[in-house]
Amino acid sequence: MVLQMKKPCRKRIRMFCLMLSACGCGLLFPTACNPDIDIPAYIYVEKVVLTTTLSEQGTASAKIPNIWVSVNGQNIGTYQLPALIPVVASGKTNITIEAGIKLNGLSAQRPAYPLFKPYTTSITLSKDKVDTISPSFTYQDNVKIPLMEDFESAGLKFSPETGSAPLEKTQDSSLLFSYANEANRFSGIITLPYADTVPFFEIKTTAPLYLTPQTATDCFIEINYSFSQDVEIGLYCHSAYQTRQVPIMIVKGQENPQWDKIYVNLTDEIGSAYSQTQMTHFDIYMKSSVPVGKTARYLFDNIKIVYW
User: Fold this and answer.
1) Assigned domain for 294 exists
2) What tens digit of pLDDT does each residue of 119-157 get?
3) 74 in the same domain as 155
4) Residue 38: what are its φ and ψ, rounded to 5°?
5) Per residue in 225-253, pLDDT tens?
6) What's 203's domain CATH number?
7) Residues 6 or more apart from 158 whose CB is under 8 A from it?
8) Where are the beta strands (DSSP E) in 83-157?
9) How many angstroms separate the first and last alpha carbons of the chain?
């Protein structure tokens, strides 16, 4: 059985065929019909590193899961490492790469870390070719590190509150934090319950920190850690009239903890405390506890307060 199309239907089909023949070359074979179409070059970044002066800036260990990329001054986006990045440019090209972090450990928040200097380079790109870049970051030139606890020196820069389990040093090689080309003899450790009776710890910095929104535009605490139980990190904000405890975040513990790194943003809390209470100085604290019948282990290393 053959269906007879009505004239209006045949007319519409003829018009569609004419339109398709006019633009179909561009739809089906865009590069063949339009030789001027942009063919990208590619940049490949497998990993990045941080370079530090160990005696002044501490460990070069870093956790940089993504990068922010600009080409000739134009931001083209953020990419998770390792990354193959298409770049619509050729010839001599200026590339700027910024280190992305997980802000307060959150995967959904990955800003460029303001305390690392952007990596810049100029390379000659060719269309449809891959160039590999290996960025090395450094701290900003005017960064200050008023506290650095690597557990290698005599004494400790954190002390326990009354009744708390103590922060101690361990030399157990199975527990120590390690990073390539850095000698590390000690890490910090707390075990709960301590002496089978103390089910909590709270430690805080031994020396007061005098920072204001004017002196610390961006302020972070960096920590290498391995926690089997959640740990609260926060500030004790002191003024002439009061001391106020300000929790900032909970670092989640893991059932089978491995060493990790976190960047905790102190900037907003310092600004808020300064404006609301005329804060004169502050302390950093960390605390945790375990329920009856449970045990936990907390390992710390390379605790830095970094600001500019």
Assistant:
1) yes
2) 999 999 999 999 999 999 999 999 999 999 999 999 999
3) no
4) -75, 120
5) 999 999 999 999 998 888 999 999 999 99
6) 2.60.120.200
7) 149, 167, 188, 203, 204, 205, 206, 286, 303
8) 83-87, 91-100, 119-125, 130-132, 136-137, 144-149
9) 83
What total of structural domains would you count in the chain?
2
- pTM for the predicted model, two decimal places: 0.86
| Tokens linked to 130 | 């891959």
Q: Is 48 helix (H, G, I), strand (E, B) or coil?
A: coil
Do the domain assignments include residue 34?
no
pLDDT higher than threshold 70 for residue 224: yes
Closest CA to 268 of 248, 238, 240: 248
DSSP secondary structure code for residue 12 in this structure? H
11 occurs within a structural domain: no
Q: How far apart are CA 191 and CA 179, in angstroms?
A: 23
Amino acid identity of residue 258, one-letter, is: Q
Residue 287 lies in a domain: yes
Task: Please answer whether residues 301 and 172 qualify as being in contact, where contact means their C-beta atoms are separated by less than 8 angstroms.
Answer: no
CA-nearest of 257, 248, 202 to 221 is 248
Q: Which amino acid is at 86?
A: P
Q: Can you name the residues that pair with 67 across neighbouring β-strands? A: 79, 99
Report the alpha-carbon distance of residue 203 to residue 144 in Å, rounded: 23
Rounded to an integer, what distance in angstroms lies between the CA atom of residue 114 and that of residue 152?
28
Nearest Cα to Cα of residue 115 among 41, 29, 204, 50: 50
Q: Is 133 left (phi over 0), alpha (psi -120 to 50) or beta?
A: beta
